[in-house]
Design a protein that fits this description.
This is N-terminal acetyltransferase B complex subunit NAA25 homolog. Belongs to the MDM20/NAA25 family. There is one protein chain. The protein has 975 residues and is mainly alpha-helical. It is built from 41 helices and four strands. Strands 1-2 form a two-stranded antiparallel sheet. Strands 3-4 form a two-stranded antiparallel sheet. 41% of the residues are buried. The model is unreliable at 1-6, 380-400, 708-725 and 927-933 (pLDDT under 50).
């Protein structure tokens, strides 16, 4: 009783501290903690809460010091341990949580709560071996609690996941043996334990044993999830090629849920396998009994809907059945129905649903263009041909159309494009059809006014707008006349006013703006789609290849920080999901969460964003060499031990089909485009990673000259330090050699790759990097760093005229970074003034290179400054007149002067791009031919040009800002 009273007193005293922390009043929390500690000096939990408040106030050194002291005392109180866990979670020191509970468990080996927390700490770290050990300790402590035993079993399974070879020979057999023991002793209590045993068997390919479990009494206990036992049984039978059982299982499932498309596909797949096996075994003619049974079953399901709600599944299954017969050239059915008639029937029943297009698209490959037209002949929405035009116009007047009729017409137009009818149109006819679709779009807007749609709803006619824009892009591709692209942008800008939540319009707008070198409007469009969480990985590519390319450095920093933060937080969130899976016995989800975590950890977008973020920091956060060293110190990289990204492990998680396109598959080529794009992205990532490590190693070399190590605050001395100095320089030269060799291997990327204009990925900047003087400039500058290091090691006496050429080479070569033909972004093309932003990309590449050269020059300055100080001291000791300054110093200053001149020239070029600075009237690029009465379109055009002007102005100013900092940086490097 006295002990309980003591605990109550402590809780009462700590409550004000917890309240202050919950309210975010950290200063008050410290005061309350101090009050408690005056009365009760040894109340450890109060000290921990004070440390937590200090950490949240940014006083990390004080908070960490206090936590370390408490940690070393190895506390065991539950409140203290929980509070310390919160501190370590917030500082992402997850290893210390495990260490904390490990120490506590030694003092209290029979404390179930401490051991449970220790197990979860190992789960967070992914330490499967320690998980197993802790789980077995819990099992010995509480042998009647099944979950602890199966925690150990699952930990063994996960060890097999980490090591596939040992998994099959050691870990999985052990897990199977442990689980079978509980089955034989009739100790199984939960469905999760049965599922875990099935997982173990399936991972070993023991399908017969799994089948026996599913068909036995244990399988009957799998009832919490709908159809779980049946789908598991069908999966096992599929692996064993027991097609008759699979066939029966899915037939029974379809009797319950006849609209499940997955069930229909697997049902038919099993049926066709049965027929093929019969042919193979009997070497006889095609037997149609199974096929007739399938055909009758489908018709039975269709007939059952005659008086009820129509379901798409059975009708699609009927078409799929005929498709598979045609693929196999089987025509054994007496009443052979053709796909054309079935598609006509499907369109009759479901053509008023927007999903009808995606359903029918699966089967139009089996029809000719003329047969597709026949599908729609029975409907009043089919159409008169315009004179000399293969496009179509409604017989009915626009005003008489209803939403269902409009949807039917949209399905037809979409399928027409998929069949290639729009691609073969002449330019005039394509423009006429585009205009016709825009009129239909405008007329369709009335359906969203009465009753009014919600802001989050899409307009019923939005796809007319998108189809019209795609036709304009076809014309732009054929003619090269930008007027069609800008008109497409204007129409999309008008469309987004009416349908603010239509992400397809926003995606297309981002793409078209970026094609023309205008990034300014893109961030707001991107943010308005509320891209969060996993979408940062799948959709980040939409803007990632453009933001730096077009000179928006500030926005690039924001975007890269967001992406990298998401991937970093993933580790924490995935761990929480894993712990929940263990707590609730969801063993089947554990492997899924681990695989999902690995997928994000190896994401191409993650590694690209992380590398670009660090390179951007070296550009943006440096105006003198001291800030460069500080920026490098803050990076969590180890250039002496880091290895290049393993391309075999990289995962391309981009959703390249997110943008809607109705083009023929022969033009889309999604898999071919993905393969080429991944190859290009990986090569660009490798080049950027190598360049980053060249810069980091060079900064290390500069610090080594003054006997300091820059990376992560490490410092060495004596023989080890000499070894590190040599290692950093040797590794620097090795990385440079790798950069040059890999660039040579990437010659195939010198010509910019072009992908599908709407749905394809966008090229990287690798072509500009390889075509320009950038690699050569970096190479010469690294030679300069190597030369300076040699001088600091051997003395100025090693300065020889032939070795001094590196300064002259750099001085002369730096002029190649000046872009000659940027001038203005408005250029004449075919007698028309058009916006051409190709020079902007070249300018950005030169600005990046001058930034990197400035950093490398800072490394040289550090070494030469050291030499100059020694030379000055020696000169002052002598009584003779002062000797002239060594040639090395003079040559270095000349090189810096030339780099400064190049920077000024680039600054002038960047300034000349600013429409305000140069008094260029971008609005003079009017689209023309817009009738005066179309004031709305004229206003949208004016808005577009304002956005273009603002974007170019933003690019110009941010580039100038970077160059201004580099100019200041270079001025500090003069000896």
């Amino acid at each position: 009783m006295a002990s309980r009273s003591h605990v109550d007193v402590n809780e009462r005293r700590l409550r004000p501290i917890y309240d202050c922390l919950d309210n975010g009043n950290n200063k008050k929390a410290i005061q309350e903690a101090d009050k408690v500690l005056k009365k009760q000096k040894e109340l450890t939990c109060a000290k921990v809460l004070k440390a937590l408040a200090l950490l949240r106030m940014g006083r990390h050194s004080e908070g960490s010091s206090l936590l370390e002291t408490i940690h070393q005392s190895e506390p065991t109180e539950e409140q203290t341990l929980n509070a310390m866990s919160i501190c370590y979670k917030e500082t992402q020191q997850y290893e210390k949580i495990a260490s904390l509970y490990e120490a506590a468990s030694k003092h209290q080996p029979n404390n179930e709560d401490i051991l449970s927390c220790l197990f979860m700490a190992h789960v967070r770290l992914g330490n499967y071996q320690q998980q197993q050990r802790t789980a077995m300790s819990l099992h010995k402590l509480r042998p009647n609690k099944n979950p602890y035993y199966f925690w150990a079993v699952m930990s063994i399974v996960m060890q097999g996941h980490n090591d596939k070879k040992l998994g099959q020979t050691t870990f999985l057999p052990l897990a199977e043996k442990m689980t079978k023991k509980y089955i034989q002793e009739d100790k199984i209590e939960a469905e999760a334990e049965i599922l875990l045993y099935l997982i173990i068997l399936e991972l070993q390919g023991k399908w017969q044993e799994a089948l026996e479990i599913l068909e036995g009494p244990l399988g009957g206990q799998l009832g919490n999830e709908l159809n779980l036992r049946e789908t598991r049984l069908a999966h096992v039978c599929t692996q064993m090629a027991k097609w008759d059982k699979v066939f029966k299982i899915y037939k029974d499932l379809l009797n319950e849920t006849p609209d499940d498309w997955t069930f229909w596909l697997k049902y038919q797949d099993a049926g066709f396998h049965m027929v093929e096996e019969h042919i193979s075994e009997n070497k006889s003619e095609l037997s149609d009994s199974t096929l007739k049974e399938m055909d009758s079953f489908i018709k039975e399901k269709i007939a059952a809907m005659s008086d009820g709600v129509l379901l798409r599944g059975p009708y699609l299954a009927q078409i799929e059945f005929r498709k598979q017969l045609l693929k196999r050239n089987w025509s054994c059915l007496e009443s052979q129905e053709d796909i054309l008639r079935l598609l006509q029937d499907y369109y009759d029943k479901f053509g008023h649903h927007s999903c009808c297009y995606s359903d029918m698209r699966l089967y139009v490959d089996f029809l000719t263009s003329e047969e597709v037209d026949k599908v729609f002949q029975a409907h009043s929405l089919i159409l008169n041909k315009l004179p000399n035009c293969k496009c179509y116009s409604l017989v009915l007047s626009l005003c008489s159309m209803q939403v269902k009729q409009m949807t039917r017409h949209l399905v037809y137009i979409q399928l027409s494009r998929t069949m290639g009818k729009h691609i073969i149109l002449s330019i005039d006819n394509a423009l006429r059809l585009s205009k016709d679709l825009l009129l239909r779009y405008q007329d369709g807007l009335r359906f969203g006014k009465d009753p009014p749609l919600l802001v989050t709803d899409l307009q019923y006619s939005d796809n007319y707008l998108l189809l019209a824009v795609h036709l304009l892009l076809d014309v732009w591709t054929k003619t090269g006349d930008d007027i069609h692209l800008w008109r497409a942008i204007v129409h999309l800008e008008l469309g987004i006013r009416e349908s603010k939540s239509n992400y397809q319009i926003k995606l297309l707008l981002i793409r078209l703006y970026c094609i023309k070198g205008v990034f300014g409007p893109c961030p707001s469009l991107y943010d308005s789609m509320e891209i969060k969480h996993i979408m940062n990985d799948t959709m980040g590519y939409i803007v990632s290849n453009h933001v730096i390319r077009l000179g928006h450095f500030m926005e690039a920093g924001t975007m890269y920080n967001t992406w990298v933060r998401f991937f970093d937080i993933n580790q924490k969130e995935a761990s929480e999901h894993l712990m929940s899976s263990y707590k609730f016995g969801s063993f089947g989800r554990i492997q899924e969460f681990v695989e999902f975590q690995e997928r994000l950890d190896n994401a191409l977008q993650y590694h690209s964003a992380k590398t670009e973020k660090m390179l951007l920091n070296l550009i943006m956060q440096t105006d003198r060499h001291e800030t460069t060293e500080t920026a490098v110190e803050s990076m969590n990289v180890h250039p002496l031990t880091d290895t290049p990204v393993d391309h075999s492990k990289l995962r391309d998680n981009r959703d390249l089909t997110i943008s809607l396109s109705w083009d023929p598959p022969s033009l889309l080529l999604p898999e071919d485009n993905r393969m080429k794009s991944v190859e290009e992205e990986e090569s660009w990532l490798h080049l950027r990673w190598t360049l980053l490590h060249i810069l980091l190693l060079a900064v290390m070399v500069g610090r080594d000259i003054t006997n300091k190590s820059v990376v992560n605050g490490n410092s060495d001395s004596g023989e080890d330090h000499k070894k590190d100095k040599q290692t950093s320089l040797e590794l620097l030269k090795k990385r440079l050699d790798e950069l040059q060799k890999y660039a040579h291997q990437c010659e195939r990327f010198k010509e910019p790759r072009q992908y599908h204009i709407v749905q394809g990925p966008f090229r990287t900047r690798i072509s500009e990097f390889l075509q320009g003087p950038h690699i050569s400039a970096i190479s010469i500058m690294v030679d300069c760093v190597d030369y300076v290091y040699t001088l600091t090691k051997l003395g100025l006496e090693e300065s020889k005229p032939e070795k001094e050429e590196c300064w002259t080479r750099m001085k002369d070569f730096s002029k190649n970074l000046i872009i000659q033909d940027v001038g203005s972004l408005i250029k004449e093309s075919n007698g028309k003034r058009q916006l051409d932003s190709s020079g902007l990309e070249q300018l950005v590449a030169s600005v990046e290179s001058i930034s990197y050269l400035t950093i490398l020059s800072g490394v040289c300055n550090k070494g030469l400054n050291h030499l100059k100080n020694n030379w000055t001291r020696k000169s002052k000791k002598g009584k003779s007149p002062p000797a002239p300054q060594p040639e090395t110093f003079v040559n270095f200053n000349a090189m810096i002067t030339e780099l400064s001149a190049v920077t000024k020239e680039l600054h002038q070029i960047a300034s000349s791009l600013d429409p305000v600075f140069t008094s260029v009237d971008i609005a003079s690029l009017r689209l023309a031919d817009i009738p005066e009465e179309e004031q709305l379109q004229r206003g949208a055009e004016h808005l577009v040009w304002n956005k273009v002007e603002h974007s170019i102005q933003q690019s110009s100013r941010e580039i100038c800002e970077v160059l201004h900092h580099k100019q200041f940086y270079l001025n500090t490097l003069m000896l």
